[in-house]
Specification:
heterotrimer, A alpha/beta (244), B alpha/beta (416), C alpha/beta (482), A: 244 residues, alpha/beta, Rossmann fold, 6-stranded mixed β-sheet, 4-stranded antiparallel β-sheet, 38% helix, globular, C: 482 residues, 13 helices
């Protein structure tokens, strides 16, 4: 599904990723943990094509296509989804219009006609119930005036709408209380399947109680320095990152 | 006869220095029109009445310094001092810094000054200054030299139908620093015009702080033009306080000619009676990464008028500029007027610029709260006023200067 | 949903080049270029006007002759040669038209191309259209239906003949002849325009609509619109403008006057997409318009405009809030791209007690264009407890354009409360990225964000117009990314 080889990337003059290697197979859930500043969020940004980062070396194969060769919207249309750590507010653009544009952008890429109004509404209803997204939030402007928890639910709602092949969850647990965390995790778990993979980026082990990973990687200094099973996360929780 | 542009300057005498500037000034004086209500820059501050006066320039001879005005306007401030009266330098009351890397003297005693300012090519008021300037502060501070004490520049007008012309020049070398207090006083019996211009150059990494105070009795038409040029990473803070003045026009132009400059400029005005106070500011960001912050607050009482015009330019390529401008006004009495025109002209896209302008009243809730605690209406208002302009006055660094400004405002407006 | 006329119109517009740039081949009755008293007499005679109107025109001409073209706006353009313009151009076939069948087929074709076939309009949207083509009204519909309610909606020339007392009573009372250079010129030479009168207490049941086109090569257009809403009445008026493509600049100097009597409410909406010139700034319309309304007691005037066209725009729809408790509103989106220049805004003159005004202006600049907001809020000494709230935002889409804000605030009453705020910002890169990450391409993302940015204003437009306006925004900004 995803093969990252020797990935180097910098922001401005600072090199953040320094030869990162990672392989994610279909249906797998990989957790990436690490101390602040280790490059976790950079990895999410580089994979999704944020322009502020420059890839200086390395290669990323995404289901047979060269990921780094595409612009951000084409990566999304190929099935890469990023759940943002800090979802941006877009005043005046309703969540529904936004999602419709996104769904149709993806459909056009797949050679499909724009979605029918009734089908779209049905889909919205299903996906919203998955994360208990309030009907009112659907009609509001994208993320505008949403609480932290509402923003994160909205991210998972969008993921459900777009049905990606690979979802990258960037610190999705940050700023969530335990109830919201449970709801968001339920949404993610409901979407786990044999052909959909996840990369879960988190600082704390807490999230991994809800979304149980197949693999846990520790990122430090821009590289993966340790890989293990889900028990690695517990070990990190008790011993801290200095232990690595 | 009175009223014509030509006759107005008949009795102005120019001393014999800066000949080149004077002759250029005289040419423009002839060509430039007297601004009227149709002149956009002067539409709220017509000066037709000025022309009705028959003014003359004074020399220093034969006058006694009036008792009611202290030569040192900021008591207790440990400072240097240069004193002018009706445009002329008063040597006996002045006290200059003597230090390595600092040149400070009256302008009339300097051999040649390279003025860069071109205000005289644009405005009749400026052309008069270039042609007739009598004296002023000359200050240069060398690289990495920090002036140890502020310099107080004090100008007094005490004649009737006086025309005074001051021209100050300040130049700070790289990494240098200086503080200047520009203070103008006038006796209650005085009348005429005070026309001053200040040109300041701030080299990279240098800082300049100016506190400008107008506390003039009498009936003076006051034109004050400050032109400051900031090079890379330099800092400027200039506060303009109009405590008292019959007709005051403060023009402030800040030009950032290097990247990373920081400019802070604030002001207050509280005209009463028939007074007129006009603040025109221009912040010109021509280079990237500059920041500017502007806060002007005023209350207009009686039948007075206040004008605020703040321009912010962000030129092409001046990316990442962050410019903030706020002007707040209270119209206190029926008959008073505020005319405000905050302007933004933006030619670069990656910038953050905002301005806000309000006209309002005292917070009724706050007023009621104070009164409910047994404070009388006037006193409660005074408290609120003091807090309102106090925010701005608090940006003055020196306690002595700040206290004196508060004292003068208090005295005038009956605060506690 | 059936495609509306607006959708059809928009499909026409969606081509990148200006699709309305066609010329209708009709014999025109055109006066030789130039301006003098004789020309004015000729215009007046051709229109069989009463003597008082000729006198009024001649007086305006005298006033205009003594004025100079203003230069205070933030605009740069060659001054139009007003002596090279023909001041009258009317389709020759001037016989009475009883039904659409009698209209010149060429004209019908033009209307269809514009997407405003009257038949369709009637059937689909219930909008009455007064179609002004080169100064003379050629067809008016729904007249009978409106007449039942006592509403008069006709060309101004017709009103001069049929309702002279109304015209004489109100013309020039809101925009006096000497108001400004172009208003004076218009007063002297105006050829036609719309007239609308809503009687006391009547709520006009449909949106009244006018489309203007500048058709005849080298013909300046000097429309004059007069709208009178009598006590307690309500009307929503739409004005849409398109112009065919021309090489030389064309001048448009219209005057719109609105009288909103006690307790009346007038909504005046404009979508303007006149030819803006090409990418190098060749051609395009000069749009120098004076629009003003006067509000009597407890009445309300609401201006909404979406400006995407014209090479040079100079326009300040204003409200004189004369009556106590009256309300003025101004909602504007102005888009400039390529070499366009716009200097637009409003004036809110508060005279009455407890008068309120709201200004929301959203400027969007792209390409090498210059976009200025210029507004005046004036509180007179007698306007006790007047309120104003203004927001003027600018969005910059390129590093070669300019966005400027020139608000004038004049307050002479101690109870005045004015709040003005303005911000200038770049379109958010993180917003574009967020959209892209969801599979929306950059161009579409920008369209979405811009529509969101302008939403507060677009929402004020009547439904049919809003769709058109949104599409126009996107079209105007096509290719402006990066």
């Amino acid at each position: 599904m995803l093969k990252i080889k020797n990935l180097h990337a910098k922001a401005g003059e600072t090199e953040i990723l320094r030869g990162l290697n990672l392989e994610v197979g279909p249906g797998e859930v990989h957790a990436i943990m690490g101390p602040n500043g280790s490059g976790k969020s950079t990895l999410a940004s580089v994979l999704s094509g944020r322009e502020a980062y420059e890839v200086t070396d390395g290669f990323v194969d995404f289901d047979g296509v060269d990921l780094l060769d595409m612009d951000a919207s084409d990566r999304a249309r190929e099935g890469l989804f990023l759940a943002f750590q800090y979802p941006v507010e877009i005043p005046g653009v309703s969540n529904m219009n936004f999602m419709k544009a996104a769904v149709n952008g993806n459909r056009a890429h797949a050679g499909l006609d724009p979605i029918k109004g009734t089908d779209f509404l049905q889909k919205v209803k299903e996906c919203a119930s998955l994360v208990e997204l309030d009907g009112r939030l659907r009609d509001r402007s994208v993320n505008e005036g949403f609480s932290g928890g509402e923003k994160k639910r909205n991210e998972i709602f969008q993921m459900a709408m777009l049905q990606p092949k690979l979802a990258v969850l960037d610190e999705t647990d940050s700023g969530l209380d335990i109830d919201a965390l449970r709801v968001v995790s339920q949404g993610v778990n409901a979407m786990r399947s044999s052909d959909r993979s996840f990369i879960v980026i988190t600082h704390y082990q807490r999230l991994l109680d809800y979304i149980v990973p197949d693999f846990v990687h520790v990122l430090s200094g821009g590289k993966i320095v340790k890989t293990g099973g889900k028990e690695l996360a517990l070990e990190l929780e008790t011993k801290g990152y200095d232990w690595i | 006869m009175t009223g014509s542009k030509e006759s107005f300057t008949l009795n102005f005498k120019a001393p014999e220095f800066s000949e080149e500037l004077r002759s250029e000034g005289a040419e423009f004086l002839q060509d430039l029109p007297v601004p009227n209500r149709k002149t956009e820059r002067w539409k709220y501050s017509p000066i037709a009445k000025l022309l009705n006066g028959s003014l003359k320039t004074f020399g220093s001879e034969g006058l006694v310094w009036p008792e009611e005005i202290l030569p040192d306007p900021v008591p207790f401030l440990n400072s240097y001092r240069i004193v002018f009266r009706n445009g002329t330098y008063v040597s006996s009351l002045s006290d200059f810094p003597v230090a390595e890397g600092v040149v400070c003297s009256p302008l009339s005693e300097v051999d040649s000054v390279e003025f860069k300012n071109t205000y005289h090519r644009k405005e009749w008021v400026g052309a008069m200054n270039a042609t007739y300037h009598q004296d002023g502060l000359f200050l240069t501070v060398d690289k990495n030299v920090i002036l140890d004490r502020p310099i107080v520049v004090h100008h007094l007008t005490d004649g009737s139908d006086t025309a005074s012309f001051l021209r100050h020049f300040i130049s700070l070398g790289e990494g240098a620093g200086a503080e200047v207090v520009v203070w103008c006083s006038a006796t209650d019996a005085s009348s005429g015009m005070c026309n001053s211009l200040l040109e300041g150059h701030i080299a990279s990494n240098a800082y300049l702080v100016i506190d400008k105070v107008c506390n003039e009795g009498g009936e003076i038409f006051k034109f004050s033009h400050e032109h400051l040029i900031q090079e890379r990473d330099s800092r400027l803070k200039i506060n303009t306080f109009t405590v008292k003045g019959h007709w005051v026009r403060n023009e402030l132009e800040i030009l950032a000619v290097g990247a990373g400059t920081d400019s802070v400029f604030n002001g207050t005005y509280m005209p009463t009676g028939l007074e007129h106070v006009d603040n025109h500011t221009t912040m010109d960001h021509a280079h990237p990464n500059g920041t500017s912050s502007e806060l002007y607050r005023g209350i207009v009482y009686g039948k007075s008028t206040a004008v605020f015009n703040g321009k912010v330019f962000v030129r092409k390529d001046a990316q990442k500029v962050n410019a903030f401008q706020q002007n707040s006004n209270i119209v206190a009495d029926q008959g008073a007027t505020i005319n405000a025109k905050p302007e933004l002209e933006i030619y670069a896209d990656d910038v953050k610029c905002s301005h806000g302008c309000t006209v309002g009243q005292f917070d009724k809730e706050a007023l009621f709260y104070l009164k409910s605690r047994g404070i009388g209406t006037d006193e409660a208002k005074a408290l609120l006023v003091k807090a309102y302009v106090g925010d701005v006055i608090s940006s003055v660094d020196r306690d002595e200067v700040r206290n004196e400004i508060v004292r003068l405002y208090s005295e005038r407006h009956g605060w506690e | 949903m059936e495609p509306t006329e607006e959708d059809k119109l928009l499909n026409e517009v969606t081509g990148k080049s200006y699709e309305f740039g066609f010329t209708t081949d009709i014999d025109s009755d055109t006066i030789a270029p130039g301006l003098n008293e004789d020309v004015i007499r000729e215009i007046s005679a051709k229109k069989s006007e009463p003597e008082w109107l000729l006198e009024w025109r001649l007086n305006a001409f005298k006033v205009w002759s003594e004025m100079e073209e203003p230069e205070w706006a933030h605009l740069e353009y060659p001054k139009p040669d007003l002596q090279a313009i023909s001041y009258y151009s009317a389709p020759k076939k001037k016989k009475e038209i009883a039904s659409l069948d009698e209209v010149d087929p060429e004209l019908i074709k033009t209307m269809e191309k514009l997407g405003i076939s009257l038949e369709e309009q009637k059937r689909l949207s219930g909008v009455a259209v007064d179609f002004v083509m080169d100064s003379v009204s050629v067809a008016t519909s729904f007249k009978d239906k409106l007449a039942e309610l006592g509403i008069i909606f006709c060309s101004l020339s017709e009103a001069v003949q049929e309702h002279p007392e109304l015209v004489k009573n109100y013309i020039g009372t809101v925009v006096p002849q000497r108001d400004n250079y172009y208003a004076a010129l218009n007063s002297a030479v105006f050829t036609d325009g719309s007239f609308c009168y809503i009687p006391k207490g009547v709520r006009c049941p449909m949106e009244l609509s006018t489309y203007f086109r500048i058709n005849e090569a080298g013909t300046g257009q000097f429309e004059r619109t007069l709208l009178v809403a009598d006590e307690g009445s309500y009307v929503s008026y739409l004005e849409g403008c398109t112009a065919p493509q021309r090489d030389e600049n064309q001048l448009h100097a219209a005057v719109v006057e609105i009288v909103s009597l006690d307790d009346a409410e007038v909504k005046y909406s404009t979508v303007q997409n006149w030819y803006p010139g090409d990418e190098e700034g060749q051609g395009g319309v000069y749009n120098f318009v004076t629009k003003r309304g006067i509000c009597h007691k407890r009445s309300k005037i609401s201006w909404t405009q979406v400006e995407t066209g014209s090479a040079v725009t100079w326009k300040y729809p204003s409200c004189i809030l004369k009556g106590d408790d009256s309300i003025g509103e101004f909602f504007s989106v102005a888009v400039t791209n390529n070499m366009q220049q716009a200097d637009t805004g409003t004036k809110m003159i508060h005279l009455g007690k407890r008068t309120r005004s709201t200004i929301i202006s959203k400027g969007i600049s792209a390409g090498k264009s210059q976009n200025s907001y210029r507004g005046l809020v004036k509180i007179h000494p007698g306007a006790t407890n007047a309120r104003n709230f203004s927001v003027c935002d600018s969005l910059l889409m390129s590093d070669t354009c300019g966005a400027h804000t020139f608000p004038y605030i004049e307050a002479s009453n101690p109870t005045a409360q004015i709040e003005h705020e303005a911000t200038t910002s770049k379109i958010g890169e993180d917003q574009i990225f967020y959209c892209q990450q969801r599979g929306i391409d950059e161009e579409e993302a920008i369209g979405l964000i811009v529509k969101g940015y302008a939403k507060d204003v677009l929402n004020k437009l009547p439904m049919e117009f809003a769709v058109e306006a949104q599409k126009l925004l996107t079209i105007s900004l096509e290719g402006s990314v990066g």
